[in-house]
Amino acid sequence: MMRKLLEGKKGIVTGVVNHRSIAWEIARHLAEEGAEIGFTYRRERKWVEKLAGSIGADFIEPCDVQDDQQIRQVCDKFAERFGGIDFIVHAAAYADGEELQAGVINTSRDGFLRTLDVTAYSIVPFCHYARPYFRPGASVLALSYLGSNRVCAGYNVLGIAKSALETTCKYLAADLGPEQVRVNVISAGPIRTLAAFGLPNFKEMVEKRANQSPLRRNVTQEDVAKAALYLMSDLASGTTGEVMYVDAGYNIMGTWADSEVGSAMVQG
Ligand SMILES: NC(=O)c1ccc[n+]([C@@H]2O[C@H](COP(=O)([O-])OP(=O)(O)OC[C@H]3O[C@@H](n4cnc5c(N)ncnc54)[C@H](O)[C@@H]3O)[C@@H](O)[C@H]2O)c1
């Protein structure tokens, strides 16, 4: 029988709030390939418990990523139960809706710092407290968005935080690389999730994007989960510090023809 891609691997998935969460689809894919998964939640245990139960997982711990003690406890408890850590999926992000509406020019110090803390800094204590338990070949994954390096309407302070997150992951990749721990980022296209619905213009952006992307569609949670599976598995053994776009190719575009003209050109 063929060995599953993540047979024997055990790790922590953050950021599941409901069945639409990107982290949930990632967890499902990792579990299908043999991984054992521990979940964290911020407030919503009931939903996470239900979803985790559907893949036979029962390690479910509270973890507000702004709280170092909780992060430490999750890593300690997980390693105690599973004997080590092979992967961490970081999928937590936060920005106040009013601050997003108001634009970067009106962002408060508190709003800025909280967004940076949840969205970017929190991956540092996760890697720090997991470090003693990481097994060689371990893989850490964070989720980002194009707003990290381009101005994307409505993304505002989150874009600044994603920029910090991507750079933080590169430095973490350098710190942990000698221990054979990889740290990578997936920059996903817009997907309808709870967090995304809090973004101004999200609905309009998703509709436009489908026509403007080379693949002429938006990506799904499943597209991201398949890329995550690659990065978490030994297939990506030589890849670290990378930002991989899973966005139907949108990020390569400079200018747009309308889709009719674009298609006519391709067909000759
Ligand atoms: N949906 C998209 O269009 C999209 C695109 C690119 C990247 N992302 C990123 O994907 C990740 C997952 O988001 P999603 O779209 O699946 O939405 P989601 O709402 O399902 O998940 C966001 C998660 O962040 C968690 N969170 C917020 N503050 C937290 C805190 N203080 N402590 C612990 N957890 C906290 C929430 O509990 C929730 O589980 C985020 O990093 C997001 O920025 C999303």
Automatic annotation (TrEMBL):
Keywords: Fatty acid biosynthesis, Fatty acid metabolism, Lipid biosynthesis, Lipid metabolism, NAD, Oxidoreductase
InterPro entries per the UniProt record, alphabetical: Enoyl-ACP_Rdtase_NADH (IPR014358), NAD(P)-bd_dom_sf (IPR036291), SDR_fam (IPR002347)
UniProt-listed Enzyme Commission number(s): 1.3.1.9
Gene Ontology BP, a term: fatty acid biosynthetic process
PANTHER family in the record: ENOYL-[ACYL-CARRIER-PROTEIN] REDUCTASE (PTHR43159), ENOYL-[ACYL-CARRIER-PROTEIN] REDUCTASE [NADH], CHLOROPLASTIC (PTHR43159:SF2)
Gene3D superfamilies: Enoyl acyl carrier protein reductase, NAD(P)-binding Rossmann-like Domain
Residues annotated for NAD(+) binding in this entry: G15, S21, I22, D64, V65, K162, I191, R192, T193, L194, A195
Stated name of the protein: Enoyl-[acyl-carrier-protein] reductase [NADH]
